[in-house]
Amino acid sequence: MATNEKPCITVVAGVIEKDGLYLLAQRFDSASQGGLWEFPGGKVEHNETPEQALERELTEELAIQTQTGTWLADSVFDYGDKIIELKGYISHWLSGECVLYSHQAMVWVAKSHIKDYTLCPADYPIVDALIAQA
Q1: How far, rounded to the nearest angstrom, does the alpha carbon of residue 36 sit from its chain's CA centroid?
Q2: What is the pTM of this model?
Q3: What angle do CA 77, 57, 14 make, to 5 degrees?
Q4: SS3 labels along 32-77
Q5: What is the pLDDT of residues 36-76, one digit of tens each?
Q6: Domain of life, per the record (predicted)?
Q7: Interior angle at CA 68, CA 58 and CA 46, nearest 5
Q8: Distance of CA 109 to CAs 3, 41, 104, Å?
Q9: Which of 59, 82, 86, 113 lies 20 to 30 angstroms, CA to CA, from 4?
Q10: Does domain 8-129 sit in CATH 3.90.79.10?
C-alpha cells in the first residue's frame, strides 16, 4: 500500500421528505465546504451499518428520529485530501422537531428546486436519482 494513499470515508445522507418537500441543511461557513447545502447525515462508524449510521447521525445532528428507507444512489467524490463515498437513502421522519446542532440553516424545498441551491459536489448524484424517481 502506498503511503500517500488518500483515506476513503463512507458517509451516509438522508433524503428526508415531509409534506412533499425535502430537507436541505447548510454547512457552517467555517466547516469544510462551508456554506454549501447538503442532505444531512454523517460518517459510518466501525461495526455500524449505513442504515444505523444514518438514523444515529440524524438524531445527533438534527434531534429527529427517522427510519431509513430505500437506497437512492452512491456517489464517490475526491476532495483532494480524502475520498468520500456517499450513500444516499430515503429517510422517513418519525418524530422530533429539527434543532440545528451541526448546520447553520435548513430549508424545506420542492424536489424541482433542490438544484437551485449550491450543493456539496457529492450530493448531486443523489439529487439526480431523486429527481429520476417517478
Answers
A1: 12
A2: 0.89
A3: 60
A4: CCCCCEECCEEECCCCCCHHHHHHHHHHHHHCCEEEEEEEEEEEEE
A5: 999 999 999 999 999 999 999 999 999 999 999 999 999 99
A6: Bacteria
A7: 65
A8: 43, 17, 16
A9: 86
A10: yes
> Dihedrals φ, ψ of 29, to 5°?
-55, -30
Gap between the Cα atoms of 122 and 75, Å rounded: 6
Residue 62 and residue 12 in contact, taking contact as beta carbons nearer than 8 Å: no
Quote the CA–CA distance of 69 and 51 in Å, as a whole number: 8
Cα gap 62→58, rounded to integer Å: 5
Q: Is the pLDDT of residue 95 over 70?
A: yes
Task: Count how many residues are written for the chain.
Answer: 134
Domain residue extents for the chain: 8-129
Whether 127 contacts 24, CB under 8 Å: no
